[in-house]
């Protein structure tokens, strides 16, 4: 009887220790995400706007500016793409070291052809990527982003998308470096980016 | 007789004023810095931006807008939560206090132009009419800038 009780107490102790450890770990992880020190890697396999299958390997050795959106997006996405175009312009001769990627969260409507219209209009060397719903989900998980369909009667297909609107920066080794919230002026992004690239 | 004539004259002067809502607050609405981005064809919605200033003494309520460019024109508000997720939803009626300016600007609000009837071409402009709760209407010509425009200056 006494042995049973001892064992029970030991188990309770282990459970309590595990719980505290989990809580601290969760805090630690959240803090890492916050300050950008969590070294997650860009991982994806998608089709670009010219119909080519692309993975992160294709962009290795260059900085990646990654933004998630959808071609039917009238405000946030064109605004961000316009900011990215201004950043690329501002990079001047360093521009070839940076690859901007626009990844669709709307695989249903965003065919490679639909993405091509969009990317070519901005003329900033942006590669548009889209995929199957499964590939899109996997990409979303890998980048820790969120997206969701929202009904909107007058929109094409009857819906619009809510989505993470940060601009993510990955280094030449594919590791996450930092993100900028939507609405950060191109001038600030450019200054930040130049500093990261020279350090 | 003289009194009747004067009433008649007053009624004659008033009628057009009432009909156009000239006594209403929306007469004091000034719209500035309107712009929009060129569209790619007509299959995707467009967006327009502007500043709506109430230069009058009383509050006005912007209830909606219309344009022959789009089947449906609505003001949508964009909100970004603390996780960085942006969503958009119709803004509903917008009350503008005396002296206030409402900025319909990227990242805050936009005029969502749905079911475009023709492409929005850079260098052209299109008419948009703002409707107010007092029945007043304010017409606004909206210039179409390039697709990568970042503000009214291009």
Summarize this structure as a short list of keywords or feature phrases.
heterodimer; A: 199 residues; alpha+beta; seven-stranded mixed β-sheet; two-stranded antiparallel sheet; 5 helices; 42% helix; globular; B: mainly beta; Immunoglobulin-like; 12% helix; PCuAC_sf (chain B); signal (chain B); LpqE-like (chain B); Copper chaperone PCu(A)C (chain B)
Give a structural overview.
The complex is a heterodimer of chains A (about 200) and B (about 150). Chain A is of the alpha+beta class and about 200 residues long. Chain A has 2 domains: about 1-40; about 45-199, Glutaredoxin (3-Layer(aba) Sandwich), CATH 3.40.30.10. Helix content of chain A is about 40%, strand content about 25%. In chain A, the strands form 2 sheets. In chain A, strands 2-1-5-4-3-8-9 form a 7-stranded mixed β-sheet. Chain B has a single domain (about 25-145), classed as PCu(A)C copper chaperone (Immunoglobulin-like). Chain B is built from 1 helix and 10 strands. The radius of gyration of chain B is 19 Å and the shape is globular. With about 150 residues, chain B is mostly beta strands. In chain B, strands 1, 2, 3, 4, 5, 6, 7, 8, 9 and 10 form a 10-stranded mixed β-sheet that branches. The interface of A and B includes residues 75, 76, 121, 165 and 166 of A. Strand 7 of chain A pairs antiparallel with strand 5 of chain B.
């Amino acid at each position: 009887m006494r042995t049973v009780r001892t064992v029970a107490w030991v188990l309770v102790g282990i459970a309590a220790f595990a719980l505290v450890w989990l809580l601290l770990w969760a805090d630690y992880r959240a803090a890492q995400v916050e300050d950008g020190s969590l070294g997650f890697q860009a991982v994806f396999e998608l089709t670009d706007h010219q119909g080519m299958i692309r993975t992160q390997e294709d962009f290795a050795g260059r900085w990646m500016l990654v933004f998630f959106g959808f071609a039917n997006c009238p405000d946030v996405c064109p605004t961000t793409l316009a900011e990215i175009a201004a950043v690329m312009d501002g990079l001047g001769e360093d521009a070839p070291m940076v690859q901007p990627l626009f990844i669709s969260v709307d695989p249903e409507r965003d065919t490679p052809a639909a993405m091509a219209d969009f990317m070519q209009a901005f003329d900033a060397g942006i590669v548009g990527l889209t995929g199957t719903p499964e590939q899109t989900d996997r990409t979303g998980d890998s980048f820790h982003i969120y997206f969701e369909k929202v009904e909107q009667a007058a929109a094409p297909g009857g819906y619009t998308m809510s989505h993470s609107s940060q601009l993510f920066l990955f280094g030449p080794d594919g590791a996450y470096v930092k993100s900028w919230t939507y609405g950060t002026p191109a001038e600030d992004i450019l200054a930040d980016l130049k500093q990261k690239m020279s350090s | 007789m003289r009194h009747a004539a004067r009433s008649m004259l007053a009624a004659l002067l008033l009628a057009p004023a009432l009909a156009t809502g000239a006594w209403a607050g929306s007469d004091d609405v000034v719209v500035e810095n309107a712009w929009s981005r060129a569209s790619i064809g007509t299959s995707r919605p467009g967006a327009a931006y502007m500043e709506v200033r109430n230069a009058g003494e009383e509050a006005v309520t912007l209830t909606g807008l219309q344009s022959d460019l789009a089947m449906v024109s609505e003001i949508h508000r964009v909100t970004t939560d603390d996780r960085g997720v942006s969503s958009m939803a119709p803004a509903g009626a917008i009350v503008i206090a005396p002296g206030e300016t409402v900025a319909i600007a990227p990242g805050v609000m936009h005029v969502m132009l749905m079911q475009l009837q023709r492409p929005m071409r850079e260098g052209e402009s299109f008419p948009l009419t703002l409707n107010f709760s007092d029945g007043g209407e304010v017409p606004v010509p909206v210039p179409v800038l390039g697709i990568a425009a970042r503000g009214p200056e291009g």
